[in-house]
Structures are given as structure tokens and as C-alpha cells.
Design a protein that fits this description.
Arc Repressor Mutant, subunit A, transcription, DNA-binding transcription factor activity, 2 domains, membrane
Length: about 240
């Protein structure tokens, strides 16, 4: 009898430990995933020149969906409710999978992205002479080939055009221009827009059409960057200065 009681107590204890582990580990795992997503999202402007269509809210929604399903399984154990929750989750998974921009394409692998959360330029190996050389090559490229006109321009693509490593180019931009890749490229786009909008050949086009030709991919992105760069909306600026 004593051995049976001891066996039952051991079973109950192991079951309690296992249940406690499940209750604690899953929320901690989701919290860790959410933190990684937020950190990665902060690094987008160091790698992409147009980030309006790139976001990870859909991943947070899907994680929340999994958490809801887990809660239903743990709390209710209602098979019908669990089935409905899974069906809704799969529908949302398909929708977000179709509509989300392909961030991790072959042209911009995750390993090439510059993550803001890591200590920047530790042991980068660049001396001041090399930094100046890369900066001059960058400015010359922007002036002559105008890669910023490509709305899909990325840091990796730009680095390949001057035969530089991605993290080296990021360091050059941050240290010499005192801004991130996103602000640098969109600043050049605004300057191109201000030049093109004065041209007689463009009088027949709308401001948005000219903005698209200068590398912007949405009205919201153009207006936001224009206001940030000039301190005025496009209409206010043009009425005052042009």
C-alpha cells in the first residue's frame, strides 16, 4: 500500500512539473520570438530603401493565433472549438503568406542584413583611409548611375555595385553621412524630385508620377520623406519656392 501511494505521489509530482513547464515555457518562447521580431524590424531602415510594404505584424498575429489555440487546448479541451480555431488560423496563415512581401529573397539573405541590435562595427577592420575611399566611391555611384531610382534598392545591392561588404558600407554611411541607409537613399530621391519637378518636360505629370520616377513606391512614403527632408509638405514647398 505504501509503495502504491509513493508511486501515485511520484506520478502526480512529475505531472505537476510537466504541466508547470508547459505553462511557463510556451509564453516565454512567444515572448522571445516577439522580441526578435521587434529587434529585426528596427533594422529594416539599415537595409531597405523602401520599407513601407515590409512589416512583421502578420507574424505577431500568427503567433497570437497559436497562443490562442494553445490556450483553448489547455483550458477547454473542446474538440469542436479547437477545430474551428485551427481552421481560422490556417485561413489567416494562407492570407498573410500570399500578401506579405518576400523580405528574405535570394538578393537579400538574412545573413547579409545589418542588425541594429548588435554592437556596430566591432572589429570591422576598416581604417580611415578605406572609409574615405568607400565613401567617395559611394557618392560617385549615386551621382553618376543614380541607383536610388530603383524602388527595390537594398543595402546589399548597393554594396555589390561598389564591390564592398554590406557591413562595411553600412559603417561608411553611418559614420560619414550620419544617417542610415534608408534616409540616405530617400534624401537623394527627394533631391532628384526637386530637380525633375522644375523641368519643363515634367509639367504635364502629377507630383506623384514624378515621385514614382524618382524611386518612391507609394504616396505615403513620398510625403513622409519629403516632410522629413524639407520640413514642408510637397504642395507647401512648391508653392513657396517654385
Amino acid at each position: 500500500m505504501n509503495s502504491l501511494l509513493a508511486s501515485n505521489e511520484g506520478f502526480l509530482f512529475r505531472n505537476l512539473v510537466r504541466t508547470t513547464y508547459i505553462y511557463i515555457s510556451i509564453p516565454l518562447y512567444f515572448g522571445w520570438c516577439a522580441l526578435k521580431i521587434f529587434r529585426f524590424q528596427r533594422s529594416l531602415k539599415d537595409n531597405f530603401s523602401n520599407s513601407d510594404k515590409i512589416h512583421f505584424n502578420w507574424m505577431l498575429f500568427l503567433m497570437a493565433g497559436i497562443l490562442v489555440i494553445w490556450s483553448v487546448v489547455i483550458i477547454t479541451k473542446n474538440e469542436e472549438l479547437i477545430t474551428k480555431a485551427i481552421a481560422i488560423f490556417l485561413i489567416l496563415l494562407g492570407y498573410f503568406g500570399i500578401t506579405q512581401v518576400d523580405v528574405f529573397s535570394k538578393r537579400t539573405p538574412q545573413s547579409a542584413l545589418v542588425e541594429e541590435v548588435k554592437p556596430k562595427y566591432v572589429n570591422s577592420g576598416l581604417d580611415n583611409l578605406e572609409i574615405d575611399r568607400l565613401h567617395q566611391a559611394l557618392i560617385r555611384l549615386l551621382q553618376t548611375e543614380k541607383p536610388y531610382l530603383n524602388p527595390e534598392l537594398t543595402l546589399q545591392h548597393l554594396a555589390s555595385m561598389i564591390d564592398a561588404q554590406v557591413h562595411h558600407l553600412s559603417q561608411v554611411i553611418n559614420e560619414k553621412e550620419q544617417k542610415n541607409f534608408y534616409d540616405l537613399i530617400n534624401g537623394w530621391r527627394i533631391e532628384e524630385f526637386l530637380k525633375e519637378v522644375k523641368s519643363e518636360k515634367n509639367k504635364k505629370y502629377t507630383l506623384l508620377a514624378i515621385a514614382y520616377d524618382c524611386g518612391f513606391n507609394s504616396k505615403a512614403s513620398f510625403n513622409r520623406n519629403f516632410k522629413k527632408y524639407t520640413g514642408k509638405t510637397p504642395t507647401e514647398y512648391l508653392n513657396k519656392y517654385i
